[in-house]
Predict the 3D structure of the following.
Amino acid sequence: MRTADRAWSLSLREFGFASVLAGVLVFGTIGAGALQTPRARALDFWAFLLVVLAAVTTVALRRRAPVWGLTVAMAVLGVYLLAGYPYGPIQLCMIIAMFEVARQRSLRLSLLACGLAAGAAYAMVAARFSHHLDTPVVLSVAWLGWVVLPWSLGALVHAVTAARERARQELVERVALEERMRIASDVHDIAGHGFALVAMQAGVALLVFDEQPEQARESLEAIQATSAKSLTELRSMLGTFHPDGQGEQDPAKPDEDTADSSDDPDCTGDTGLAGLPELVDQVRAGGLPVELHLQPLATPLADDIDVVAYRVVQESLTNVLRHAGETTADVRIAQQEGELVVQVADHGRATPQQTPRLGRGLTGMRGRVEDVGGTLEAGPREGGGFRVVAHLPLTGYDQ
């Protein structure tokens, strides 16, 4: 219905434009006829028919087929002039058609049309005014006014429009790329952390399966809880891309794993500083001793800062699980000099002489921090181990 309404509205506007143009040309032609020399042919029915035909076809074809519109306008103008009718405003149709060709079509095509139109204009004016004493002047005016000027203006509009479209397309592509990077970072944080814990717990379960079945059972339960929570977080994130916010899951029929995990305190929790104790407990259950020092904050954190701080700790502990070997980790969260300082350090394999390798996790972490106006430092510690320090604003970042 809306498409039909737009088409009807466009047709009305085109009809109105054609009517106004035809009226202007008719009355202009009458005025021009009164000022012409006796050599000009008297205006008659056929003269006005040509004028109206030029106006209607120019308007009707200017959007759908501008090249054909220019061809028809040139043909009608040629018939009008060669028939000896008074020189008048009918050439306005050729000007409009030439402008539309240059505005809508490629530079190569519009240049070709401009050259052909210039030749046709030269031939028509030369034949019509061959007896005139100032024929070169008339030819120059016709060539410039009918062809070159409207083509130049149309080409300029075409170039500006194309530049704007390229800028818009580049913006769309940049936004899409940034969104893909954000999604990739979220998936990396959620899945990477979960898989690291699952791998460690599975290794523990295999080691103690025969001699300590109870500890193996605890490891398997931790694997179940971690995988269920990671699945819940992934579904929650991916659900935001579905039109109804429910992802691919029917909201009336929740998945059994999701439903079960919602009742498990290990599978729910906040993605923010409030969820750090739970996160640390999961990592400890995976076999990595972690000390958490979370100082009370005098200033409430903005939501995006809260999430980024959590993700920094999560990714840092995941890296410790993956790369540090037998070690311990220390997590410190404090408010210092108007900013939030997040520090995660371990005593693992890294040495001060080593150059930190910028993997996807560290790169994504740095991107998250910088997106909210913070800074991140990561590298080996003096005495061995690795340290990540993020400095975050307390109130968010207005980009």
